Amino acid sequence: MSSVLVEVITVQITVTLRRQPVGGLGLSIKGGAEHKVPVVISKIFKDQAADQTGMLFIGDAIIQVNGINVESATHEEVVHLLRNAGDEVTITVQYLREAPSFLKLPLGSPGPSSDHSSGASSPLFDSGLHLNGNSTNTAPSSPSSPIANEPKYEKRWLDTLSVPLSMARISRYKAGTDKLRSNAFEVLALDGVSTGILQFYTAQESADWLRAISTNISDLTLQNMKMANKCCSPSDQVIHMGWVNERLDGTDSSQLYKFKFLALKGSSFYIFSTPPVSTLDWVRAEKIYNLCEVLFKIHKLWLADDCWLQANLYLGIHQDFDLEDQRPYCFSVMVGHGKSHYFNVELGSELAVWEKSFQRAIFLEVQRTGSKTYMCSWQGDTLCFTVDFALGFTCFDSKTKNVLWRFKFSQLKGSSDDGKTRVKLLFQNLDTKQIETKELEFQDLTAVLHCIHSFIAAKVASVDPVFIDSQSIARKYMYSN
């Protein structure tokens, strides 16, 4: 399925309107039993009571008013009920797939049995319920009237709407907030087309549709990745890509989320505002980081029994995040100089895929790279520190290239740092079994520590194939619950 087809099904909904001091109920009606046609909403006035519900549309047939069935009521009876129903009016409406022909009459067109001289409302003319006071027959405005020349605001049903799913994104949250919509979500296409808010009767129905559409988007994304990889070298393949929400912290500490498109490709982790659709787009990313120097960390995922699990995957560096939000599937990517990006996805399965993809992309990059060397210093001497997949750790003089010390990964027994530039690495001497402390100073300590973590994890994974699965917090908990 390459697109989602939204079709309006004939259902009844009940809405409570709160009558406003100016504007009343904010709607007009046409029709009535005397002409064997239903009473329908013929106009909705912008920003007034009916419009503010977001659930009423032109063409909706009124079935009940405050629990009173009006399917057999005359036009005047329905007008009377609505105008005298109090400050809160509860109406039940039903969408009519085929709009009644009288609804399509231009404003002011005479009905077959209308009598304007009587002053009574005609079922084929709009009876305005947007004003308080006596019932008004909205007689046609003269051509010279300013009101007649104003653009008409109409909110109508659409029978079908096709939304392309390739590179589309889904949101269950109100724009820019962490407030979850109740049993509803929105699908937004790459070209800007939106389904609008899709409201479902039950949480299960909403979850089923969300999962189905998300699966199709993922399948199409996978197809796009395969096509992109045909143009890329084996060392520059796309491992995974997709939409997330990034939390941006404002100066007033307010939380704002924005859509971002992430990609794991070759040696780099990319952050885009819009998906790359051509080869040239890859150099236009907002941020690009080396995969060896980033750290993926799960923060929250939603479990059974409505409890939070806050998971910490990192050993060595501790960083606190404000987790007081309502988004359940959250992860961060820590980068150099102590900075980080905090993301959220819609489904637990997406969180598990990102976790696995980051692990795979980092391990592949470590194996391709083989080693990383960083400039460092200690006691005034300029040194080079190398992390090598085969040899482990090596420190040598940057000028003479003389090796000062070398240890295997298995000899590293611990580490500590000042959170700024200095780190102490504790190695066990294989001969004496004593612990030797090596202290170094780096310009970007965070990147070096992330690199050490990546190389050690990749080394263990190469020896123990089940290591990756044993480290997967998201897959372990999401799939078992």
Q: What this model shows, in words?
A:
The strands form six sheets. An eight-stranded antiparallel beta sheet has the order 17-16-15-14-21-20-18-19, with helices on both faces. Strands 25-24-23-22-28-27-26 form a seven-stranded antiparallel beta sheet. It has a four-stranded antiparallel beta sheet with strand order 2-7-5-6. With 481 residues, it is an alpha+beta fold. The longest helix has 27 residues, at 203-229. The protein is 20% helix and 35% strand.
Q: What is the residue-averaged pLDDT?
A: 81
Care to count the β-strands?
Answer: 28
Give the termini separation: 28 Å
Please count the helical segments.
Answer: 8
Q: How would you describe the shape?
A: elongated
Largest sheet: 8 strands, antiparallel
Strand order of the largest sheet: 17-16-15-14-21-20-18-19
Calculate Rg over CA atoms: 32 Å
Helix fraction, binned, reads: 10-25%
Structural class: alpha+beta
Percent strand? 25-35%
- Low-pLDDT parts are 106-120, 131-151, 303-321, 477-481
Short structural summary:
20% of the residues lie in helices and 35% in strands. The chain has 481 residues and is α+β, with helices and mostly antiparallel strands.
